[in-house]
Amino acid sequence: MKYGLVLEGGAMRGLFTAGVIDVFMENGITFDAAVGVSAGAAFGCNYKSGQIRRAIRYNTRFCKDKRYCSVNSLIKTGDMFGGEFCYHTVPDKLDLVDVETFNNSPMDFWVVCTDITTGKAIYHKCGHICYDEMEWFRASASMPLAARIVEVGGYRMLDGGIADSIPLKFMESRGCEKNVVIVTQPRDYVKKPAGAQKLIKLKYHKYPELRKAIANRHKMYNGELKYIRSAEEAGRAFVIAPPEALPIGHIEHDPEVMLEVYRIGRRIANENLEAVKEFLELNS
């Protein structure tokens, strides 16, 4: 039996996920493989490096730094979340990734990106931390209109959530028969069509398949929610979701708001801890 972990994105809603996985790590819960999308990848990589509280630590430390996230950064660099600062300066110099632990961890860690030419998902297994590997994380979290297209591995990519927001089917295709799925919207959430279609059409006029994927994302997302519910009913998935809409947007500069969302994640994880252990057969 192989066990997987599926981490949805959602920008700063990902701090809910950070709280959940910190509780898991504190209680020695491990997985054979994990897949992260956008913030799920950027924050979830700390599972593979074994760094409890790192995600909430650097987010609260730098949330008011214009290099980290600001309109100023968007104007100067093309990225609302500063690409060089967030994915290289912070992990290399200011709040270091534990590279040795990450590289030696037996858990496979996949990130999801969207190929802007095909509009399809690309799944990349992150092995050894280096500049290019961090660029895959950046690509996975590069939101349309708020980030530059990222070129790495011979691809041109944006946010993985465009093509595969909650990649449970992918984890199952990798042989994970049971999966814990952490989502960042409440269970009754229904995604609506994306706005700003005129801006999308203008900016990405050369990429019709990308525009189509963005326009149809709500259909893909709601279909994935339906699949996840069926997997849960069949006993193949254990879903952890916030009890209600999280009190945070895509961008947040108040560390107290960040901490509140993180603490909600910790609370929900603790409430579900014994059930998760039973699902993963850790008590047998």
TrEMBL record:
GO terms for biological process: lipid catabolic process. A motif (GXSXG) lies at residues 36-40. GO terms for molecular function: hydrolase activity. The active site is at 38 (nucleophile), 159 (proton acceptor). Keywords: Hydrolase, Lipid degradation, Lipid metabolism. This is Predicted phospholipase, patatin/cPLA2 family. A motif (DGA/G) lies at residues 159-161. It comes from the Bacteria. Residues 5-172 form the PNPLA domain. The keyword Hydrolase applies. It holds the Pfam family Patatin. InterPro entries: Acyl_Trfase/lysoPLipase, DUF6363, NTE, PNPLA_dom, YjjU-like. SUPFAM superfamilies: FabD/lysophospholipase-like.
